[in-house]
């Protein structure tokens, strides 16, 4: 089988720890090169992860004719620039979430990719796992009754790392950009519609450039259903999702990251009965890479069209405005 040749734009932890191993475990991809603005850093990563080429600039990697697709794990404020530059060089783009700082920026990125005839995909790895299709099937079967609400939480604690890019406001720092985007995306995925309005409250930390270190919110959907969520970077770790119905509920203990074979399983409660739904232990990063490759080869369409990234950024935009103004924000 032909392999899609990937170039990695930066040595971020998510790239080294998750995406590069995912590409290597995929059916379709190989990692051909990695770049950093520090050649010594990229060379060390290349040697450790057995990547053939290392570059000392992003420009060099993008210019490499032997690269088919670029993975962008750079800080959020750099996503737009390097997506457009990769597109102009004829490379497909897999860009870490959130795709950019605003919905408007994402539209510019998508337009650039369309004009260049390349694909653009946002890297929400969790939604490529087949367990979410199973969860949707249970919801739609009526087993747990009418859907009354969803609650999602994604929190971790890392407040002492003051040099972390997540704590730079101008760079798109903050918890809703970093982890809150997951429950927001999941509710849209499971309910198969877009929200109408949001109301949020946030803890903006002066110690961390006034980014939102914690956010809680209510996201209104049509049909009398809402998502309640919280996200944070200065709180005990949680990574959960619960779908509440009139007859039962679905509980996903590890909703977005699944580090062990058992952590991907979820439970269904109906009346006094409960069962565990066991799911295969699959590399979610490999699945998202395969999705882009098959689309690049014309074998199928992207599971999640690039416009989905615009829709998710509209919700994130509204969450930040709501928290800053202490008002309910209608999503346009």
From TrEMBL:
Pfam short name (any one): GFO_IDH_MocA
Stretches assigned to the GFO/IDH/MocA-like oxidoreductase domain: 132-251
Domain called Gfo/Idh/MocA-like oxidoreductase N-terminal: residue spans: 4-122
GO molecular function: nucleotide binding; oxidoreductase activity
Alphabetic keyword roster: Oxidoreductase
InterPro entries recorded: Gfo/Idh/MocA-like_OxRdtase_N (IPR000683), Gfo/Idh/MocA_domain (IPR050984), GFO_IDH_MocA-like_dom (IPR055170), NAD(P)-bd_dom_sf (IPR036291)
Family from the record: Belongs to the Gfo/Idh/MocA family.
Protein name: Gfo/Idh/MocA family oxidoreductase
Organism listed in the record: Paenibacillus roseopurpureus
